[in-house]
Amino acid sequence: MSNPIVIACLVAIFSWWFSTGIILVAVRLCDRLTAAQRQLMCLLTVPIFALGLIGIEFSAPVLTTWAVYQAFFSVLCVWGWIEFAFLTGVITGPNMSECPQGIAPFERFVRAWGTLAYHEIALLASLGVIVYIGWGAPNSFGMWTFVILYCARVFAKLNLFFGVPRVNVEFVPKALAHLNSHFRITSMNWFFPVSVTLLTFALACWIERVYAHTLDPQVIGFSLLSALTALALVEHWVMVLPVPDARLWRWMIPDTHKHIEQKYRRKDSHGL
Description:
By secondary structure, the chain is an all-alpha fold. Helices cover 67% and strands 0% of the residues.
C-alpha cells in the first residue's frame, strides 16, 4: 500500500465519491430553504471557493508531493462550490421554465443554454483564472485537474442534449426541477463515441506520463489525473449501461425523489 500510484488513485476515487456525496447532502438540506436562504448559504460558503483559488496559487510554483495534493484538493474546493451554487439554484441561468415538446433543435439548444448560462460562465471564468495561474508553472496539476473536470462536464452536458439511454434524475434538486424536461432519452447519439474516445485518449496520455517519470510528485500528479479521467470515463459509460450508480450516494440521502424520475421517464423529453 506504500505504492504512491495506488495511494494517489485511491485518494482521487475517495475524494470524488466523498465530495460528491457532501454536495448532494448539502443541496438536499438546502431544498428545505427559501430562495433567499439558499443565496445566503452560498454567500457564507464563498470562503471555500476563495481558499481553493489561494491554494492553487500557492501550490503552483512548488513541485512537491504536498503541493500536488494541495493543488488537487484546492481545485475540488473551487469546483465543489460552483456546483453547490448551481444545484441550489443560485447560479443557473435566466430560463427557469420547462422545455416545450416538439420545438426545433436550435430553439431547444437556446432554451437549454438559458437554463445554465450563468453556471457555464462561472466555470469558464474559473477555468481562465486557473489556466492563467498554472500554465507553465512547475506544478500545473491543479490546472489540469480543473481542465479534466471542465471538459468531462461539457461532454456530459452535450450527451444529455443529444440524448442517451440512461439519465439519472434521482438527485436533481427542487430548485432545478425544470431541468428534467431538457434531458433527452434516446438509444445513442453521434457525440457519445467522440466524447469517450477523447477521454480514453487523455487517460492513455496520463498513464504514459505516470510511468515516464520517476519523481514522486510527478508520478502522484499524473496518477491523480489518470484516476480522475478514468472516473469521468465511467460516468459517461453509465449513461448507456444499466449500472445503478445512484446507489453510491443514495444511502447518504434517504429522502430521494423517486417519483420525479418515474414521472420523467414517462415523458418524451428534450435534450440539455
